[in-house]
Amino acid sequence: MNPNLKRLQPYPFEKLRAQMASVTAADLRPIAWSIGEPKHAPPAFLHDQIVASIAGYSSYPATAGLPALRAAIANWLVRRFQLHNNQNFSADRHVIPVTGTREALFAAVQAFYDPSASANEVWMPNPFYQIYEGAALLAGATLTYLNCVAEHDYQPDYASISDEQWSRCQILFICTPGNPSGTVMSSEQLQFLIKKAIQFDFILLSDECYSELYRDESRPPVGLLQAAEQMGHTDFEHCLVFHSLSKRSNLPGLRSGFVAGDAHLIRHFSAYRTYHGCAMPVPHQQVSIAAWNDESHVLENRRLYNEKFNAVVGELKSVLPLTIPDGSFYLWPDLAEDDTLVAQRWLEQANIHILPGQYLSRQNAGINPGYGHVRIALVATLDDCVEAARRLKRLY
Predict the structure, then answer these.
(1) Do residues 46 and 248 touch, judged by C-beta distance below 8 A?
(2) 256 phi-psi bin (left φ>0, alpha ψ -120 to 50, beta other)
(3) Residue 323's domain is classified under what CATH number?
(4) Which of 82, 184, 231, 287 is the most buried (most CB within 10 A)?
(5) Could you tell me if 382 and 307 are in contact, meaning their C-beta atoms sit under 8 angstroms apart?
(6) Does residue 318 share a domain with residue 204?
(7) Rounded CA gap, 214 and 352, in Å?
(8) Per-residue pLDDT at 11
């Protein structure tokens, strides 16, 4: 038995179920704001695509994916992150399809973490997506949590980290737009981290699965590869980005995404995945090609989320400290009280399900930076979101 299995902590939703098991919910229709699972309808044109591709289930898929899928992903990256002038960028060398970012983020640490290196730490923002922690624990790594607090716009205070601390980092997870805060890192912030990765020889793993859920059509979030290109770092050394169709195209069940960046790392990751056995089924690849090639449904998806943000915050801003984030589909208010009690009260009195912030973070440097916050996932319908907001307004 792998002894590191004992180091794993319960998943946030396991903790939530246990905490709320004895709570009697209000006699109202339940509204789920807890799990970040997209509920908007996937684009209709994909139905015909998967039917037309059904014969592909009779063939083993290749780990590297179809050339057409890698090309569609590469073309999307070029369009979305303005990589037009990068003569080095190649669909074959810099891109590999994966079965969702969750699987790929976990696998990347298993493939790249070197337990014999003197720099033996895996760093992650705190709060964080729990896969980061689980991947590091099962790889046998030493974990370093970087607190994300309001004073630093819910991003780690990278500028305060000493050279001695940087020298201990082997892998650094970043998330932009952030989960749960929705904070978007600037190009300057990303370039600072790229320079540190080069200087101290660590790997940057950038989780960008919320990159297409943003508020301002004139200011899409910058990505790590885009920031690298802007500083002339066109080989993307030390840099990997993770993207998915789950949030972008409302296809969480398809399990389709990609990893892109440093060709050296991609080559070794591909070798690992040959044995890992997570090649994407051919029909899923065909659907993915169609999804990456279309932007109209993504624009509509953003419109729906933005409509919900405006409606909910407009309804509640007089009674709760809500701020619309630059990205993601979450609200992350600091309610300045025990967030588990808030979640219990909202369930008991309004039958609204939310996630306590402290379940997403760890005690570090004397605080749990998620304490007092709740994560509200605006994934329900507009009508349900408005109904939930009105119920809460009556409570306050």
Answers:
(1) no
(2) beta
(3) 3.90.1150.10
(4) 287
(5) yes
(6) no
(7) 25
(8) 92
Q: Which domain range does residue 154 map to?
A: 58-293
- Which two three-digit tokens encode residue 235? 């080989």
Pairing of strands 239-244, 203-207: parallel
**Cα–Cα distances in angstroms (integers) from residue 362 to residues 124, 197, 337, in the given order:** 11, 25, 17
pLDDT at 87 over 90: no
Last residue of a domain, one of 274, 293, 312: 293
Q: Do residues 372 and 335 lie in contact, with contact meaning Cβ atoms separated by under 8 Å?
A: yes
- A 10 A CB-CB count for 390 gives 13
Tokens (6 digits) for 94: 């810099």
Query: Cβ–Cβ contacts within 10 Å for residue 21, how many?
Result: 7
Would you call 238 helix, strand, or coil by DSSP? coil
Identity of the amino acid at 135 = A
Tokens of 259: 């990893």
What total of structural domains would you count in the chain?
Answer: 2
Confidence band, pLDDT 50/70/90 cuts, at residue 85 = confident
The 10s digit of each residue's pLDDT in 285-323 is 999 999 999 999 999 999 999 999 999 999 999 999 999
